[in-house]
Each structure stands twice: as structure tokens, then as C-alpha cells.
Amino acid sequence: MxxxxxxxxxxxxxxxxxxxxxxxxxxxxxxxxxxxxAAAYRVKAAEVGRKVFxxxxxxxxxxxxxxxxxxxxxRSRPGLxxxxxxxxxxxxxxxxxxxxxxxxxxxxxxxxxxxxxxxxVEDLLRxxxxxxxxxxxxxxxxxxxxxxxxxxxxxAGGDRYLLRIETSDPELYRRLHPSxxxxxxxxxxxxxxxxxxxxxxxxxxxxxxxxxxxSLAADVLFLRxxxxxxxxxxxxxxHRETPLGAKSGEEDRAARRRRLELGLRMxxxxxxxxxxxxxxAATALQALDPAGRELGLAxxxxxxxxxxxxxxxxDAYQLYDxxxxxxxxxxxxxxxxxxxxxxxxxxxxxxxxxDSPRFRRRRLS
Length: 365
Ligand code: SF4
Hints:
The chain is α/β, with parallel strands linked by helices. It has 16 helices and 11 strands.
């Protein structure tokens, strides 16, 4: 099929197959990428509107029990100073988010499964709900946990849970993780979260070593079939002090541009395929291009996650090299973001939670 006809079919909501998605991820015909992004933007405007919602992210601890081969805070990375913020500091960040019109907060840390950690997060959730009068939506991004832990956190006020599957290809997953990290458990956790009433989000790394375009196309279909409410995915950026990053060596500009392009096309194809979900313009896009998040919004994303972690902790929470805004405080970040979003002709939904329309419909049905 002619590539432009294929883009029109996708915009109308026709189901694309894996081969068609793979073609749209790479097609170099003149005007095709612009047509793809424009179609995805129209679908975004129609399905979720031209308003950007903010999730202030607090990376409150870099303690992690796992050892993913690509991650800068993996358990066995030597010499990294480990921290966990005090509850008072986390609540102060939540109060700042609420007072500055961020409708939602994301609490993210390394993965820890213990009664002490479960109770720590439970108390935080209750505290955040109390200081914001229940206004702030809270997303947790705390990895794989048991059903009982998810239930306790939901009951304490958690609204959304982001658990990135990283790749939908079990074989590639196996190559990226030690043998005791199980793809099936991760996928099972997504199912537990769905059954537990959470708004569920997942996502992938894009441009991993050994990841084919067909595999990325399968990722889009995985997101569709998992019927998620939110998507958080971004380009893979190597961290030199990890086993995977050390193998990657120095990257040239062309490799980074290619990965940015693939990241943007994945956003566009996810928007065309899933339509009414929330899609984040990941910070990793900005690490590849100073305007990366705006490019993500123009390709179909509608969520931005500004970092509101106190700056003194940020050096020790670098999941990948070259993470942007390490020394920008939350207030600088808010002003800079507002300018950038308004330059695009979009507005920020200050004070709004911005739940995904898909989740709202699901709740009503
Ligand atoms: S990706 Fe997550 S689970 Fe894996 S090592 Fe990093 S913080 Fe831990």
C-alpha cells in the first residue's frame, strides 16, 4: 500500500499489522514522517485534547535490589552513594507540586520488596493525600511487588502505577537482565495492577542493542493488547558504568539522531494505535535533543514529567548518561516548561489531574 494511504488508514483507526507498523517506523519516503506526525497530532487533539498535564516526579531513593544490565542505579554498581529521602522531604516536594498547580505526582525509586518499604510508601501516600486535601493524583513507579502490597498502596491512596516492561520480546528481555529477573513476573504484575483497579501504565526502551524494528512494532501491539491507560517509553541511552553501556562504547551524533527519530515515531504510532491514552514525552528525548520533549508533544504525547526531586539527590539518580536538568530546581523547571509548551500553541492543565480518557471511560462502563 502507498505509505500515505497507510497513514490515512491508521488515522481513521484501522488496525495496523506488525509489518505495517515496522514500515512506518522506518519509511524514508519524502514527506512520510511529517505526514505520520501530523496524523498522530490530529488524533491526539481529537482524543485527549491539546492540553499538557504535568506529573512532578520525585526520585526518592536509589536503593535497588535488582541488577538490570542497562541501569545506572543497579544493585551492583560500585561507588554509587545510596540514598533514601526522608518522609518530610518527600512531603515537602508533594506540597510544592500541589501549590504550583501540578495535578499529579510520581513517586519513583529502585525496586525494594520488604514490609518496611511497603509501610514507608503507605505512610507517604496517606501523608500526600492529607496535605493536598486529596487533590494530587499519585502515580507509583516502584517496580514488581506482590498483590498484597499493591492492594495496600491502592487503599492508601495510590491512583496510577507505571511498570515498564522495557521490551515485549521475552528473549531480548532475557539478554538485558540477570537470570532471576523474570519477564513473566513483570507481565503478571501488570495484570495484578489492572485487576486491582489502578490506572496502569507501561512502556519500552527504544533503540536497544539487538532490538529490531519488528520487535518495536510488536511492542506497539503489546501496548494495544494489554489495554493500558498510560504509556511511558523513551529512547535507550547508554550509561557507561553498566554492563550494557560499557559494550556500547562512544556513540556518534548520527546514532543519537536515529534513536531520537525512532522514539518520536514510536510515540506517533502508539497514539495512532491506542488513541485515547496518556503518553509521556520522556526526559530521555530531551537528553538526545534539547527540544526533545516538545518534539514528543508534536508527535502525539500529552504528558510531561518534570523532575521535582531536590537537586542535591539528582547526581545519584542517573539511570543513563547525560540526563538533563540535573541542577535546575523545580521552580526554574516549571517556568521553562510553561514557555516551551506555550510556544507550541498548547496549554498546561494546571491543577488538573489529567487522567486518561480511556481510564475514565473504563470506570464508567
Ligand atoms: S531498572 Fe529499575 S529495577 Fe532495574 S536496576 Fe534500575 S532501578 Fe532497579
